Amino acid sequence: AKARGRNGYRFYAPSMTGEGAERLRLETMLRRSIEKNEIFLNYQPQVEIDSGRLIGVEALVRWNNPELGLVAPVRFIPLAEDTGFINQLGKWVLYESCRQMIRWQEDGLYVPKIAVNLSVKQFERGSIVCMVADILEETGLAPHRLQLELTESVIMNTGDALVFINDLHAIGVGLAIDDFGTGYSSLAYLKQLPVQTLKIDRSFIKDIPADSDDEAIAIAIIQLGKSLNMSVIAEGVETADQAAFLLRHGCNQAQGYFYSRPELAQAVLERWLGAGEG
Ligand code: C2E
Ligand code: CA
Ligand code: CA
Ligand code: CA
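^ thats the input. predicted complex w/ calcium ion below
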């Protein structure tokens, strides 16, 4: 029943068990994943293109279940959101991310900042601001070294988004808009938000230089960020050509397989320790 997918993820054919039964099984297993130590984080470096310097990492959650193998976030994040488990998971991810920043520092590696993804469901609960503040205090990570990544859907679909976002800004954490350009945020909204960073979505990067429309969109986002005094980072950079294109058009920050895949904390340490002024 199992077959190894392209990324080493294993898939189950829905016909084997029925989609409903499969989902229920996954849900039950997911609920126990944290206590069973099946959840861990990978970290993907964010790099300054011209110098190659490490400017940060993005924390990406992983679920390794003994029966299911490595389950892709696109499969279990939506499930976690539907069942409410995302609150527990999101808290775990945030705590672990902040702790890891301190551990790297203790091991001699200074990682300037860590980016952590937040789900829209975490905002619906309302206590997000306290949770972030508590975790920062408990771990001792300076607020400006944490950057929360919000998608446009978080901003547009949360009634009190502006309030939460302003409160998060007030405690000193950085904010980024993830997958920028794929959602439906209005540009007027953008102007009001205390957001410092736009992340150009991978879908606009992947066909550069073949697709001139994507090139035009990437350039437009870079210019928009500049005129709003925001920094712009491109995600999904896989080739030297793409990096050169970005640099040429004024975007000096990138994340993607060209620089590094998401990897374990130890691998980040080994690769970047002593790799320059970092
Ligand atoms: P995202 O936030 O847009 O994260 C970037 C995704 O692109 C990651 O997939 C990463 O592994 C992948 N990626 C990075 N560079 C490249 C590249 O050069 N080429 C290609 N083809 N892919 C690249 P991943 O880790 O599977 O995560 C998928 C999505 O799951 C994330 O998209 C994010 O929306 C969500 N996610 C991951 N971790 C968390 C988390 O802790 N909390 C929440 N709420 N969502 C998470
Ligand atoms: Ca992200
Ligand atoms: Ca993306
Ligand atoms: Ca995303």
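The radius of gyration is 19 Å.
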